[in-house]
Amino acid sequence: MTDRLDQPRDLRLRLRPHYDPETFGRLSERIARFLGTARFLVYMTGFIAVWVTWNVLTPLKFDPYPFIFLTLMLSLQASYAAPLILLAQNRQADRDRVQNEQDRLAADRNQAEIEYLTREIAGLRVAVGEVATRDYLRAELQRLGDQLGSSDRR
């Protein structure tokens, strides 16, 4: 809610920070999309290779062999990646649900239009069936001509 100048300010202390859920959701989708790329795998592989090489070959080891700190860093990255991916999946599911509803409504409209056009075409066929067609007139004229020709011969 925006602050209004004609209202006194709320002086309550907020313990939770305010964030825009939509902005956070878009950010989480961007991160989740990046985590699912080959580029991310290459970057992580390079980072781990540099980390291990540094701590094995240089005298300035900040994380010796069992690489406990590296394990902690990877666990921390995974603990943030999983909820971000789930949030992105939930947002995608919401978008899919809205799209499916719109598709269903469009299909219902299309079905109603098809039924209307089918009724119209059936009505036109009935109307055309009552009108003499060119082939029917030719056949009748041919029949009458044949009858006249046969009556003249008698």
Automatic annotation (TrEMBL):
List UniProt keywords, sorted A-Z: Membrane, Transmembrane, Transmembrane helix
Q: What is the lineage of its organism?
A: Bacteria, Bacillati, Actinomycetota, Actinomycetes, Streptosporangiales
UniProt key word Transcription regulation: no
Q: Which InterPro entries match?
A: DUF1003 (IPR010406)
Natural source organism = Acrocarpospora phusangensis
Q: Which PANTHER family match?
A: INTEGRAL MEMBRANE PROTEIN-RELATED, MEMBRANE PROTEIN
Q: Where are the transmembrane segments?
A: 34-54, 66-87
In terms of Pfam families, this protein maps to: DUF1003 (PF06210)
Q: What is this protein called?
A: DUF1003 domain-containing protein
